Structures are given as structure tokens and as C-alpha cells.
Amino acid sequence: MDHAAVARRMLEALGGESNIKAAAHCATRMRLVLNDKEKINQQALDDDPDLKGTFEAGGMFQIIVGPGDVDIVYDEFTKITGDRQVSTEELKSVAAEAQGNALTRAIKVLADIFVPLIPILVGGGLLMALNNVLTSENLFGEGTRSLVEQFPAIEGMAQMINLLASAPFAFLPILVGFTATKRFGGNEYLGAGIAMAMVMPDLVNGYEVAETIKAGGMTYWDLFGFNVAQAGYQGTVLPILLVAWILSMVEKFFHKHLKGTVDFLVTPVLTLLITGFLTFIAVGPAMRWLGDAIASGLQNIYDFAGPVGGFLFGLVYSPIVITGLHQSFPPVELQLFATGGSFIFATASVANVAQGAATLAVAITTRDDKLRALASASGVSACFGITEPAIFGVNLRLRWPFYIGMGTAAIGGAMIALFNVKAVALGAAGFIGFVSIRTTDWP
Questions:
Q1: Which of 26, 80, 164, 357 is labelled catalytic?
Q2: Is 26 a catalytic residue?
Q3: Is the pLDDT at 135 greater than 70, yes or no?
């Protein structure tokens, strides 16, 4: 690839330097905020042999270049335009100013918080799935022992895998506290610190709070006449999201009203103290209840609707990916894992494979060499969980492959509901997603 030539062709198709408001890039795509989208020469971008597709999301026009090439093309692009290089976070702010209703902005905030955590969540989820394979009984037929029982020599390895898999989820509030506080404009290390307090070993483990309260074994602090439960928040998401926002607001307030050395010394102390008291007295318990209610409500609706609900969710999952709403699913899924398993991940796997299969069908049937190359690569990618190149680069452009993928996913979603298939961990939502499903549901 001649990266400089690609950058020049791209700029020309986008309407020239005067039409570029801001630009950044991620691992595979150029992300641009444009002054006038009517100036885009879409045909030129579609016909370019070095570009793999375009789409618009979150107020940004995005061009799929590919890993290993996009950063070089971006450098050449900014040399021509003279624009200063901005981060994706800065670009998102520019895009948000340009457009976006309240729902769009809320989704973007969740995406900003959880997208950086996807590698550790997927890594931990797949390790958890591997641990399930090693320790589950009846996996290879009724009455069969687990692999660990059959081969005692691997018990230590299984325990190590379980440790590595459990850590990201047990201490998830710390990870979310860091990214959420950073997103809300506070000091991310204060956010991580308050989250550490929420998962301290001195507290009743978050996974055991309900049972401990039911058994009458909960311990309490006496704070100004209030009995405050010494409950931990391991594995939870919603409490730390609100706590991070409150902490950021408190910190900004003190930064605004205190100056110099006083600000440096006093602000962190008061921020942690005030936020900590609010967390354990009110915010944490309320958000724990809300999280449980959301998860229970979703599960009840899904159970009540049965295969019809599964059909409808499978039908709309790929359109949800287009809007970016799927970025709001991780906190809901994590809550569902704590209550028995998630139908969302199972349906997402079906929908991703469906879109990937439709894309591969295009690769087999098309006579266009560029489209065949694009469909082959993006179809395989979609089958292993990365659907954007397939959806935006192929299926949406041709429309019917996208519709067929939706219909296929709907049938799969109905079957998932019919057989009550649940995921117990995150992972790659595609062909290998089955390892994140309850082992009893594998058949």
C-alpha cells in the first residue's frame, strides 16, 4: 500500500482540507468529523482498492483502512491537512458538540467507559470458560467426571486459570472506577481508590451479600445513628458508575474553590471522605438494588416472551450494533452473570455468525474482485466476533445480505430462548463463543 497516495485520495474524496473539522484513528479506522457531509464522494471511497468500507456513527465519518496501515495513513493525512493530531477522546468531544441527542450521548459515555476494558473482560471471560471446561462434570456424557478429576495432575493449572479468570470480575469496580472517573473529568486514581474501598476484604463479599443478610449475619457500622451495612461490591458495575460521577463532581467543586497548596492537600482527602460516606450510606445500596432490579426485569421479560422474545432480540441485534447501542450491554450482562447467566451474549454470538455467513456468501457469489477480497476477510472476522467490517463494508451496502443475516439471527435467537441457553462469561461473540456458554447448554 502506498500510504501517502491513499491519504491524498481519501482527502480528495472527503471534499478537501477545508471540509475536515477534526481527525483521529483507532486500530482499524480513520475517524473524522466533517464540516459538510454532502461534499463526500462516496463512490470514490467505495471504489478505492485500499479502503475496506465506510460508515457513520457517533457523529463521525469512519473509513476502514485496516490494522497496521491506518496509523501510517493517518500520519500522511495530517501532514497534508496540517491538522494537529488529536486523540479519539478529543475527537468524540468534537463530534458530540456537532450532534447527538441525550440517548446518543449516554451511549457514548458508556462506550468510552467500557470499550477500554474489553480486552481484560474478554481475556478473563475466555479463561473462565476454559476453567468451566476443565472442572465441569458430565461434559463428555452423562455420568462422566470432570477433566480435573480424571487427570489430577492438571488440578494446579486449573486453579491458576480460575484465579486469573476471577480476578478481573472480582475487582471489576476498580477497573470501571478508573475509566469512569477519567471519562467524567476527575482524577482516575481517586476513582480507582474509592473503588478499592468498595471491594476491601474486610467487607462482606459482594457475591455473598444477599445470602448474608438473609441469614442475619451482616455486620454494620454505626455512623451518626445510622446502621450502615459493611457490604462489598465485588463484580458490580452500576454502583461504581454513579460513585465515579459523584467523586468527579466533588473533586471539581473543591478544585474550583481551593487554590495552591490547600487544594493539593485538602481536595483528595475531602473528595474521598465525602464520596466514601455517600457510597456506603446511600449510593451503593440503592444502585445495587437498581442493578438487581434491571437484571431481574430483563430476565423476567425474556422468560415471559419465550421464543418470541428471543426471535425479536435476535432480529434487532445487528441493527442495534449499527446504532452503537450494544456498547451499553456490558454492565447489563455482568449483572445477568450474577443471577444465573446472560442470554445477550448467546444471541450476540448467533447474530455475529449470521452476518459473517451472509458476508462469506457474498464472497462466494460476487464477480467483483475487490468485493470478494473484502467479503472474505471481513466475513471470517465477523464469524469470530468482529462484525463492523462485514456489516458496514459489505452487508449494508448490498442490503439483502444484511436482511438475511437478521432473519437467520432471529431464528437462532428463538432457539436460544426455547432451550434456555445462557452464557456465564464474556468472550469472543462468534464461533468460539460456545466456550463462554454454560457447559450444560453446549449440546
A1: 26
A2: yes
A3: yes
